[in-house]
User: Fold this.
Amino acid sequence: MTRLLALFLLLSSAAVAQQKPDVLFIAVDDLNDWVTYLGGHPQTKTPNIDRLVARGTAFTNSHCAAPACNPSRAALMSGLRPWQTGIYTNNDPAEGVMKDVVTLNRHFLASGYNTLGGGKIYHGYGSEGRTDSWTKWEGLFPSIKEHEENMNGLNRGHFDWGPVHAKPSDMGDYKATDWAINQLKTAPTEKPLFLALGYIKPHLPWYVPQEYYDRFPLAEIKLPVTKEHDLDDIPKMGVRMAGPEGDHAAVVKADQWKKGVQAYLATISFLDDQVGRLLDGLDQSPRKDKTIIVWWTDHGWNLGEKEHWRKFALWEETTRTSMAIIAPGVTNPGTTCTAPVDYMNMYPTVCELTGLPVPEHVKGASLMPLLRDPAAKWDGVAVCTHGKGNHAVRDANWRYIRYADGTEELYDHSKDPYEWTNLAGEVGMSDIKARLGSSIPAADAEIKPTSGDGKKKGEGKGKKKKKADE
Assistant:
């Protein structure tokens, strides 16, 4: 009788596992709104990303929780904002802070999912291989090496670009795609699958094979739409974030602006090809009809707007992301949602879609009402944080920025989509600022003083210092 009961429980457990949907969780590094469906640049070519998001609901007003890899990913995967964890920038230690947090992948692992991860999901690669975090963590995939001498002549570290003599299959993201396709086809079916794939490109350096550069002839490249003296009405802290005397001045002086835009477009096109291969692999796998796809980019990127390059700022181009959810039986193909959302909504949404309980520490609102009806009433706003005390709040029409010193920016997107006119000091704006400012915390968490192994920063032996932009 005992054996029969054990067999019954085993079969019942397997049946429950089969009922749960699989999740294909795709993270992308440094991709802004330069995807065709968002219209961020008129020359971008992303047919495969477009067909991915067209399978479900694309969020066209989605924003990161922080405009840098480390805090953005830590926030999304933990459900905790930077001001709760003290993880504000790429240099703030995350591993030690997050060691006891029920992160998204840990939650799925504890709930009976086969959790497989590869590429870049978190910012710190070492912590992702913990046995209590994944069924198996594959890590990074070998790729071509960075050039010892800059190809663009700027000599600004990996802020570099140019075509390389390599095949697409030599690139790490190509190999990552191969790995993910293989998992979709061969992973055991007795457990539901949580497959996390983290694409590195279009992160710097923008090294991709020549064929991708050929898709964007340099003579035809269009620069981003900019305004001369755009920083004149920006507070000092905003100008400091922009750093016009740094990257932008170097790019303009070396006549590299068009080449940089070409390189970013080329690298995005390489990424898009991998997305196409991944979708084809999913469609050829036995998991095609029961897989939820979660697509997200960790933050935006500037290419000269406001005389700024990279992320690390609180304007639209740096906080806006490409995000979509495809949930069979819930979302309708080809739908878009314009509600302002951010990555604190991701954790509870994925839990609800898969029938998992939402951990107590996760306070974000689920996007399920918007997945069922993209035009549903939504009272939420998107909040983005860059450094302690610096926050941006985005609703359907407005962006409000408040810096740690109390200085402000305010933009009316219904009239000023490029954020050229700061209205923060204008008469009649107090109510709008107060309403949006109510989402900014009264106090922020202190930055944690230790790294993941409990040592103070800089105490580790033989550790290479990470670049701020990695």
